[in-house]
Amino acid sequence: MAKERGLISPSDFAQLQKYMEYSTKKVSDVLKLFEDGEMAEYLQGDAIGYEGFQQFLKIYLEVDNVPDHLSQALFQSFQTGYYIEDTVREDVVCLSDVSCYFSLLEGGRPEDKLEFTFKLYDTDRNGILDSSEVDRIIIQMMRMAEYLDWDVSELRPILQEMMKAIDYDGSGSVSLAEWLRAGATTVPLLVLLGLEMTLKDNGQHMWRPKRFPRPVYCNLCESSIGLGKQGLSCNLCKYIVHDQCAMKALPCEVSTYAKSRKDIGVQSHVWVRGGCESGRCDRCQKKIRIYHSLVGLHCVWCHLEIHDDCLPAMGHECDCGLLRDHILPPSSIYPSVLASGQERKTSKISQKTMDDSSLSTSEALRIDPVSNTHPLLVFVNPKSGGKQGERVLWKFQYLLNPRQVFNLLKDGPEPGLRFFRDVPDYRILVCGGDGTVGWILESIDKANLPFVPPVAVLPLGTGNDLARCLRWGGGYEGQNLGKILKDLETSKVVHMDRWSVEVIPQQTEEKSDPVPFQIINNYFSIGVDASIAHRFHIMREKYPEKFNSRMKNKLWYFEFATSESIFSTCKKLEESLTVEICGKPLDLSNQSLEGIAVLNIPSTHGGSNLWGDTKRPHGDIHGINQALGATAKVITDPDILKTCVPDLSDKRLEVVGLEGAIEIGQIYTKLKNAGHRLAKCSEITFHTTKTLPMQIDGEPWMQTPCTIKITHRNQMPMLVGPPPRSSNFFGFLC
């Protein structure tokens, strides 16, 4: 069916998206090369042949070889059934159509995409297109919508209405200004083009497309959207509409801060019709017949769901419900001008002031949280965990105040840290992988905060080693976020050690890769495991589409480990380096090693405990590490090392020797307990004599001969999840 319509398959489209995610090129950059650059030889009027099309993909996607099946499928998709003119030959495709399509898929503002696509077809640069040329743009939009699993039958009439509005005088031509004005007021089109809604508190909904697994009803026309059909849902208030009803939707009821003095201090319920997913009234405990019509009300802040008839029995004041410990209600956030006593000429603060982006700063808004609560500052990396990161962002925008939730891809963590700077007793939740957690911890270091908040982790990455150690799990799989927030309420604080790493290269003609980090949160290693990680990293950058799931990543890692076990590229590592612990040389003469790992936490490579289990002596409540005392900065005695328990906050590192890739695999699969325990120390120095693979917290690089110094930097308060029901090897946290 896909080929009949001229569409590539869903798997090919997913592969294409993965390539685009890793590419830094813009369509406009590639287009210049074809119009008046080194690729001009492939241009045949406004068309390119298959060879030129392949060159376009190689440059745009930044890969050496695009798989033949993907190139051919894409090329054919631009030939089949999508041309307005019959004059285009079968062996070429229109460069404008290709450029238009890819520009629509790119990141960026919808307004910029609309302007770029218009100018693509405005070949004489007079700012006017005829209706057939505009139709060609819309065709590419429709193709993209189909790939993104939109209901095209609903989108087509919306775009047709837009066309009528554009050509209001029936002249058959459209100006750039008319095109932009019509596009900017067509909400479903803006959402399709990737509209990034900015929180403005002016009644504007934050729409996202949603396909509903159960029948729901449009908040505007009150008719059914239908099982499996797509509509638009507001992230803030769960107001739901058909695509075609979005332009007429009532304003969003959510205000994220108090706009007058009377609203400060006491939060009121904010009721929105529909959205009663539980199907049961929280007031009378009877069923809400959600499958028959638009019935029931839900409160945006406490998330209570009630019958319409039960509303009079509800009080005016809202306590923010089960998640009140985490929520900053609007009544707790207000403009600083209201607190300063300054009076305005009007009782209403100007909307321009309210909409300004500076309201996210601590200078413009003041926070006065509800007493005995711990407001949660949430950082989300939408790129982590495939599309999970984006879904987590949407869910937290509804569960909490949207002003507590920050998209790290927009402005990084600094705006959130500034906004919460003076908030007492707040916590931070980082939604992402180990790299995202390290980014936030480093930003907290640099922010020089008066109060350093404890940090919890919602694991969205691949390895998630730190999250495993802190008992937040090895990966988020769509669990109830409300339950996770309740677990966070009972979490405990542990002060995790962090370590500085200084790499001093020797003078050689060889060039090293850049050192990824200067701080170690999880682990550092040299040799076999870093070699496997480096090969994995290189392959993933070259063929990103092959690494789009945790299972695939593990299979690739297994393949590289098998290859490393055969070739042993780091054999006799002890002959290529020397190790000093607290100034004393570590004897490796009796060892035959291919790798050395320096551990701050007892989890590497997505769950491997290289140090191994340690059985505590009976009655040892605080662990053997406490008994060693502060004077035991260096431990190398094998008998004592057998009883040492890893501890995130003992200001010591565990040093482990690895015999090879096979041993790492045995430890991961629990066929072997641990590597060779070499030492426990508070400072370590490596001197290398040849280029070796290394890694910090899972980020690998190749390093020429050098000296590496690892010293204690500081401690960071981290939140540890509640104890698991079944025992595991992280017993030191219990």
Automatic annotation (TrEMBL):
GO cellular component: cytosol; plasma membrane
Amino-acid biosynthesis as UniProt keyword: no
Residues in EF-hand domain copies: 109-144, 154-189
Stored CDD domains: C1_DGKalpha_rpt2, EFh
Start and end residues of each DAGKc domain: 371-505
UniProt keyword Nucleotidyltransferase, yes or no: no
Gene Ontology terms, MF aspect: alkylglycerol kinase activity; ATP binding; ATP-dependent diacylglycerol kinase activity; calcium ion binding; phospholipid binding; zinc ion binding
GO biological processes: diacylglycerol metabolic process; lipid phosphorylation; phosphatidic acid biosynthetic process; phospholipase C-activating G protein-coupled receptor signaling pathway
Localization in the cell: Cytoplasm, Cytosol
Keywords: Acetylation, ATP-binding, Calcium, Cytoplasm, Kinase, Lipid metabolism, Metal-binding, Nucleotide-binding, Repeat, Transferase, Zinc, Zinc-finger
Location (main, coarse): cytoplasm
Biological or metabolic pathway of the protein: Lipid metabolism; glycerolipid metabolism; Glycerolipid metabolism
Residue ranges annotated for the Phorbol-ester/DAG-type domain, each copy included: 204-252, 268-318
Source organism superkingdom: Eukaryota
Reaction catalyzed: 1,2-di-(9Z-octadecenoyl)-sn-glycerol + ATP = 1,2-di-(9Z-octadecenoyl)-sn-glycero-3-phosphate + ADP + H(+); 2-(9Z-octadecenoyl)-glycerol + ATP = 2-(9Z-octadecenoyl)-sn-glycero-3-phosphate + ADP + H(+); 1-octadecanoyl-2-(5Z,8Z,11Z,14Z-eicosatetraenoyl)-sn-glycerol + ATP = 1-octadecanoyl-2-(5Z,8Z,11Z,14Z-eicosatetraenoyl)-sn-glycero-3-phosphate + ADP + H(+); 1-hexadecanoyl-2-(9Z-octadecenoyl)-sn-glycerol + ATP = 1-hexadecanoyl-2-(9Z-octadecenoyl)-sn-glycero-3-phosphate + ADP + H(+)
EC number annotated for this UniProt entry: 2.7.1.107
Leader sequence segment: none
Leading EC class: transferase
Family: Belongs to the eukaryotic diacylglycerol kinase family.
Role of this protein: Diacylglycerol kinase that converts diacylglycerol/DAG into phosphatidic acid/phosphatidate/PA and regulates the respective levels of these two bioactive lipids. Thereby, acts as a central switch between the signaling pathways activated by these second messengers with different cellular targets and opposite effects in numerous biological processes. Also plays an important role in the biosynthesis of complex lipids. Can also phosphorylate 1-alkyl-2-acylglycerol in vitro as efficiently as diacylglycerol provided it contains an arachidonoyl group.
Subunit organization: Monomer.
Protein name stated in the entry: Diacylglycerol kinase
